[in-house]
Amino acid sequence: RHFYQNVLTINDEEYVPAWKSVPVGMPDQVIAVANENEFPENMKFRSSTLDLEPMAGQQDNEKHLSVIGKAHGDIDVIEAYQKIEDEENVAGRINVVSYEKIYKTLEVVPVNGASIEDIDIIGDRINRIFQQAAVEWKVEAAEPFMVDPKLLENFDEGESGMLASFPDKMQQFNREFKRSRPVDKETYYIFVINEGSASLSGFMPFKRQFGYVFTKNTTYTNKTIAHELAHGAFRLRHTFSSAYGIPQRSTDNLMDYNGDHDKLKKFQWDLIHDPENLVGWFEDDEESALEGLYEYNYVISDDETLIREKTFPHGIIEPRVALLPGLVVALENTIFVNENTLIAKIRLKSSGKVYYTKYSNIEEAIDIESKKYIVTKNRKILETPYGAGITDKNAEYIIGKEVFANKSCGKYVKINSSTGGIQGHWIALAALGEPLTLEELALVDDYKTFMNSDVANNFTGFVSDFRKDGYFTNGTEPLTWMEEQGLKENTVTFLGMEVSRIITPFKEVLEETEKNFKADYPDAYNSLVTQLNSIKSMQGQTAIRYIANECSCNPSNHSLGAAIDIRPALNPQITYKNAAYISFIKYLTGLDLTKSKTDQQVVTAQEEFMIKIHGQKTKKYDLANIIADYEDVNSITKEFDLLAKLKDQDVEIMDFQKAKADLVAMLNAHKNRVVFETDTKAAIDEMNTYLNSITTGNTITKKVITNWDKVVTEKITFLEMVKSAGFSGLDKFILYFGKGQLDYFNVLLENGFGELPIELVKSFHKAHQVVSLKYNGVSVKGEWGGSYDSKYDGMHFGLRTSFIKSLTNKQE
User: Fold this and answer.
1) Same domain, 106 and 182
2) Does residue 606 belong to any structural domain of this protein?
3) Average pLDDT, stretch 791-798?
4) Are 352 and 400 in a shared domain?
5) Using CA atoms, how far apart are residues 678 and 612, in angstroms rounded to an integer?
6) By CB atoms within 10 Å of each CB, which of 93, 366, 367, 670 scores lowest?
């Protein structure tokens, strides 16, 4: 209630509605519980848009309501109400917010023999906590790390949080860890330590990938891991920080110091999905101290003559003061050059601590007023302990003969006010993007309705990223260009559905594809149109955003009205991160979705996948049967091992006559889901025939089953695949695939991974070649995400990136 004043009065008492999060496009349930022993018969339910039909709950006083995630950020209100005569009374309410699901990876690293709980238990707790905010963690146990125990003494100075940095010993620890093994930039690492003289229970600075948990100081290790990840991965503050004013140990929140409580509030969910826009990311810690430094009594200050007032209405924090362009300079005799890197030692006045930082991309030495200066190539800002791109105006810079420091580089904005506590700091304007033209500014509000929140909050930065990626290098503004390309007026009927908000060249590609597909492959065309209309699943239209599941600095061609997604079977997007999907598909078909592949290879592999899983090429909705088969496979490990001995000895199975039918069914489950070779399937049939022939007793007489060794070998290979996919056992494999872990409702075992006909892909490429020749004089195929080199995104159809870039860069 402290943050959401959405209070009802029910039966003369205040009632604060709860919040629930649902991942975009995913189904979930809301449970309504009545105070009475039985649920009132006249209680009805409704959402913001429609009446809801409840289902019976597990208890007599419960009702279950189905909900489904909508667009990111959408909020739906579900109410329980009663109508008595003409009066309507609200009995309860819950707010349901939809978020794009976030996927993160964590490795838990035991240090110097520290014991950790079973990694599945740790992962379950962390995922139970963060699923409140539609976040899923892949949690793995890392190889233990050994370090000199002396390094762990007085190890944990500082506090986790926004402007915290690693103390000297932690920096040394981090360096030694990175030297000991490869470190994935996209993985978070929590070190579990149970020795040394730490005083904190945990430590993790904002937006850093390394965190520490000191088990001697906490009885709630798993909660502490989650607490530190909330700092490091999502920049969540303590509930008792000055920004909130809530007393310490007074809440059940994860970010309070109050026992094992782990709740997250809705405002924290919002911050996780749209964090305060400080400039910062995973950064390498500074290298060891330099030799021979000595101090100058010198503090770099601002040249006030260069400062002017200017407002940036589409940046991340307002209002601002902008600094005009200035030279990046330092006296030449204070420079130490080592592989084009300049290094500075700085001391923060606020703490007195000394840090090291670096500056790269030297361009030239020039004369300014008869003094030699160094100018950098890219006008990049000096890095400080606050993170790349943020410089403290109040920092004292100590300059030596072999060091460099200067704050007047390129363009800045000075933060006048900030909820993040960085007032008075300077941020490189490059992080925000150049100011927009008045014409472009006038269009921003019109287009905000289909901008992602991170784009809408910093559209200038988004445009800057477009230019860095090779679009609009001639200075053209994106929204103005899209207006000129007919984005708002264009519509086209494609595969029986209307697609709008697309630019003219892409409209022409879709029109030509429709014509080719219908004329050349009428049967495939009619079949696909029927599928699409039955599930209403095509996404066209502009969605101004970055590329999903990739580097956040690469804008998507969907942003330009140059791509659509077609989902006849709700197939997933699969990246190199989805090891389970990649391993399973490769095991069944030999196709590695993260490697270079042709259109035909993908379609052939999809057909092979579906035949092996279902016995047919097209989708078949029998997930429950498939999972039941895998559960059967998992349940007879002991009996399966006994049958492998039949060639050499008699085998006894307790209550065999009673269990025989189940055993035969379980072996058939192997034939359906685990072994796929003709010889091995025949071997299982032969084994089942033999088992059925034994009508009395519990003893199975020794017998050689042809090719039974191949059955054993193929099952071993299958279980090795399960392990390589990251599962500790077949039970975890079953749990994962039974729930359908990727977006778009995908259940891989039902739909496969590429349910689009090759005829559509061929028609699309043919059309794209015609249109690209018309506009650019060069005939090129279109961009189908099924044949991406580094991932699989079979629903994506768009203009080829090289083609769309050439269109945006044409000189008028």
Assistant:
1) yes
2) no
3) 86
4) yes
5) 12
6) 367
Report cis status (omega within 30 of 0) of the bond before 182: no
Segments in 560-636 forming alpha helices (H): 579-589, 599-614, 623-635
> Do 406 and 329 contact (CB within 8 A), yes or no?
yes
Pairing verdict, β 354-360 and 341-348: antiparallel
Mean pLDDT of the chain: 75
The winner for highest mean pLDDT among 178-187, 398-407, 417-426 is 178-187
What 3-state class would DSSP assign to 220?
coil
pTM listed for this prediction = 0.49
Q: Do 255 and 230 meet the contact criterion of CB atoms below 8 Å apart?
A: yes
Residues paired with residue 377 on neighbouring β-strands, in sequence order: none
Instruction: Say how many residues make up the chain.
Output: 812
Q: Is pLDDT at 449 greater than 90 in this prediction?
A: no
Q: CB neighbours (10 Å) of residue 709?
A: 14
Report how far apart, in Å, the C-alpha atoms of 567 and of each of 495, 660, 743, 797 are: 12, 44, 12, 11
Q: Which residue has the higher pLDDT, 741 or 348?
A: 741
Mean pLDDT of 703-711: 95
Strand 395-398 to strand 341-348: parallel, antiparallel, or no bridges (unpaired)?
A: antiparallel
Q: Are residues 515 and 531 in the same domain?
A: yes
d(C-alpha 95, C-alpha 20), whole Å: 6
Is residue 397 over pLDDT 80?
Answer: no
Evaluate if residue 317 carries a pLDDT over 50.
Answer: no
Range of the domain at 322: 304-431
- The CA-atom distances, in angstroms, between 47 and each of 65, 78, 88, 731 are 10, 4, 15, 37
Q: Does some domain include residue 751?
A: no
Tokens at residue 43, please?
A: 């209680």
The angle formed by the CA atoms of residues 772, 774 and 777, to the nearest 5 degrees, is 75
Tell whether 750 is covered by a domain: no
Question: Which positions ≥6 away from 205 have C-beta within 8 Å?
Answer: 158, 160, 161, 164, 165, 166, 231, 232
Whether 136 is covered by a domain: the verdict is: yes
Angle, in degrees to the nearest 10, between helices 708-724 and 678-693: 120
Q: What local confidence, expressed as pLDDT, does residue 152 receive? A: 87
Which token pair is 454? 């991170």
Picking from 214, 382, 373, 388, the residue whose alpha carbon sits closest to that of residue 284 is 388
pLDDT above 70 covers a percentage of the chain that reads: 71
Residues 466 and 517 in one domain: yes
- The answer to whether 571 and 753 are in contact (CB under 8 A) is yes
Domain CATH number, residue 28? 2.60.40.10
Which tops the pLDDT comparison, 168 or 371?
Answer: 168
For residue 407, is pLDDT > 80?
no
